[in-house]
Each structure stands twice: as C-alpha cells, then as structure tokens.
C-alpha cells in the first residue's frame, strides 16, 4: 500500500514539475525576450516643433487725420478693396469750395496766357483801361480805410492804457509809476511798473507821429511798428490781469470792487485784441487791392505792347502757382478720406453715415490678400538652431494632421519675450503658396527643419544607452550580446537617431538593452 502511495506521489511530483516548466516557458521567459532590429540606412531630419497662429502678411488700422461727420461708406466688412480705393469719407465742404475757386482761377490764368500770346483788340484794351482805373480807385478807398483804422487802433490802445490800466497806478504818466494794488510778489510789481513807464513812451510817440500822418505816408513801416506796440500793450494787460485775478477780497478790497477791477481789465484786453484783428483785416484788404491794381496795370500794358518772352514766363509762373494751390487743396482733401494703402480685405469697419468720428481713432481694419504668415514663440533652447530661410512643414488644426502646408522662416525678433517664465523669441513664417483655405487666426503646428541628412545609418533612440558621457548599444554578434560604443548624430522627432560610427549597415542590435 505504501509502495502504491509512493508511486502515486512520484507521479504527482513529476506532473507538477512538467506544469511548472510549461508555465515558466510561457511566462517566465517573457522578461528575457529582446526586440532586435537591423541597422539600416535611412533619411533623417531634426526638427523644432512650435505652435502659433496664422496672421495676414500685412494688417493695418486706419483712421482719419481730421475730425468730422461721415458722409460716405463705400465698403463693408469682408469686402475686397484695391490699393488707393476710398473706403470712408467725412465732410470737407469748405475745402471742396476752395479747390473749385482755385481751379477757376487756374482756368482764368490759362486763358490770360493765351490772350497774352495772341495780343489784344482795341475794344479789349479799353476794357483793361477801365479795369485798371477801377483797381486804382479801390486802392485809394482801401488805403483811406486803412489809415482810418490805424488812427482808431491807436485810440483803442491809448484808451486801454489810460482809461483802464491807469486806474491801478499812481503817477502813471511819470517816469516812476506806482502800482496801487496789494501785490505781495515784488517781482511782479516791479515788472508792471517798468512796463507802464515804457508804454508811456510808446504812447507819446504815437501822439507825435499822428500829427504828421497822412495818406501819402508809407504805411508798411508804421503798421509793423504799430503791431509791435499793440502786442506790447496786450502783454502788459495780460500780466496786469494775472495779478488782479490773483487778489483775494479783503476789508480794504471788497468783492464787488475786485469784480469791477477784473471786468475793467478784461474789457481792456478784449478791446486791444479786437484792434489787432481789425488792423490785420484792413492791412490784408489794402494789400489785396494793391495786388489787383498791379495785375490790372500789367494786363493793360500787355494789351498795348504785346507779349514779350518775359511776360509769357511770368504768366506761366502764375499758372504754376495756381496749380500748386490746387495740389495743396488735394493734399488737404486726402485727410478727409480713408484710402486702402494696399489691396486687401476689410476686416473691421466701425463707422456709419452721419456719425462723427475723431481724428486718430481707428475706424477701419484692413488685412492683405497676399500670402499669410504664422507667428510663433520659439523657446530659448531651440532658437540658436533656427535660421532665416529654414524650411518648415505646417498643419492647421482646422484641417487635421494629414493636410500639410509648406512654409519658411522669414524673421526672428532679436528681443526675448518671457512666457510662463521661459525666454522665447517671436518667429515669423511665410507660407510658400497662397491657399484660400488658410484664414487669419487659425492655430498652426509648425515643424522647423533645422538639419537633414540622407542615406545615413539610423537606429531607434531607445536602443542607445548613455553612461559616463558615452553612448553604447547592445549588438548580437554570432548569437552573443556584445556592448559596442557608438557615436551619434541627428535625432528625429520620430524617435530615430543617426549612428556616425561604431556600427555597420546590417548589424543587429537590441532595442531594449540588457
């Protein structure tokens, strides 16, 4: 019985050993199975991968140089425009009117040149004589009015000083006038007293010159001096006004009195400003009359004597001046319209007819129809490997990874931008070809080719073991695993690495070294 049990026990043990061997063969050797590959030649490229956004190659925000009311909107968002096309305009009625006058004057001067070259008929000469006589009479009237204005302006200046300003001085007409206001600023007091003494000398000269002033006197010198004197009086009154306005009411200077002081000096300043403006108007009118008389006399002379070469040149110069005036108006009119600086598409338009827009405020956004570009930030660790002109392959999230677009590195900004604590450099890529599917704002995945080699030995990067700054692979030679030191080169984004030395084509290496 014991023998039978012993034999049965031996059989069970034998079966168990066989089962264990099978289990070990199936599972136990799984850790020992090694993946092997043959070293082979292939093409390899090293790339830098970044993500960016598509942007138009040219984009600009446009605004008016003038403030005004929108009179016309000739485009809309999404519409195409060509270079120079007007997109928006604001009201410029006065400029158009002035331009029309300038164009009429040009036509008149061109007709006059034609007449100069042809000569005048007797009846035309009579017309020129009448025109000349009328111009001479206009000069006389303008001069008389001019002289009257000079006298009136002098009176206004004298009144502003004697009637208004002198109320605040003691002995104002002396060589030592004293300011009778409670002014703490001694410098301001001294300046005003000196100004009053100096202006008194000007007023005395006015009185002396007025005695001998008549219509035959030369007005130019007198008026230029008068303008200088009036501006001196204006400055004196402004300084006096500042002092009076700085005063505070007190027991010796009630508010009502102070208000009268301020009103008085304000009236004086206004009268002097009006006098300066009126004198300038009379001066302009007189000079205009003189110019008209000179033209009339020249026309009469030309009609009688016929045109000389010099006369023709003079008239041609007048025509050139008239044309330049039109050019000036055209330049001014350009400030009242927004024109497309390049052919493109209106991306945004924020203005409507009748709306008032401010100068300098962007109202139109224009993007080009030319090739789009990609803007991406390249980390500091990769930027040294990228050069202008480097090729890149691009995929757009909108179309998936199977749709590839070619691009090149166009520009690398030299200054860093810190993103999440990492220095990066804005890099611009230009698409190699226009494609209507590319739209501004799309997300772009860019792989920049920084190096590329063809027909070199490559192995998977996970076949390389690094140790003490050296690199090794486990090779199968005659069935034995042998460790071989290798020199590596380029790494690809696909996980391959170039073998520069240490292996030959056809060598068998382990992908997962022991």
From TrEMBL:
It is found in: Cell envelope. GO terms for cellular component: cell envelope; membrane. The keyword Coiled coil applies. Transmembrane segments: none annotated. GO terms for molecular function: transmembrane transporter activity. It comes from the Bacteria. Gene3D superfamilies: 2.40.30.170, 2.40.420.20, 2.40.50.100, Helix hairpin bin. Keywords: Coiled coil. Belongs to the membrane fusion protein (MFP) (TC 8.A.1) family. This is RND efflux pump membrane fusion protein barrel-sandwich domain-containing protein. It comes from Candidatus Taylorbacteria bacterium RIFCSPLOWO2_01_FULL_45_15b. The lineage of its organism: Bacteria, Candidatus Tayloriibacteriota.
